[in-house]
Design goal:
Helix 4 packs across helix 5. 43% of the residues lie in helices and 17% in strands. It is α/β, with parallel strands linked by helices. Strand 2, helix 3 and strand 3 form a beta-alpha-beta unit. Strands 3-2-1-4-5 form a five-stranded parallel β-sheet.
Length: 132
Amino acid sequence: MKVGIDVDDTILRTPELFSVLSRALKDNGHEVYIVTTRPRTGLDRKRTLDDLSRCDVVYDVIYHLPKQEGEVDDCPHEGLDDYQKFVWQKVRYCREKGIDIFFDDDSRLIEVFKRYAPEIQVFHVCKHDIGL
């Protein structure tokens, strides 16, 4: 099985969960892909590596989206706004790599997954504040 996981507001929201999950997956022969909108260059790349190390998340591949928001012109889907065209790159990457399951916090991205990659099971990581 191949599992994709976002960094910001996903791994960083519940690092203990993704540490345990990533280790269990790897220990059982599965592949873990980190898929992030963070830039690949300079301090952003170092920050990503540091965050994953600090969160004790293990992985096979880190994929950074190649283009910044507003610069995407290769999305073949009509009716998506610039942001959705940007994050569609995550969907395309996951389809190309045969990702089976993906974890992300972005509800707009999840809608793009549902529409253009229904074969990938997507889990919405969200924070619920419970008043007691």
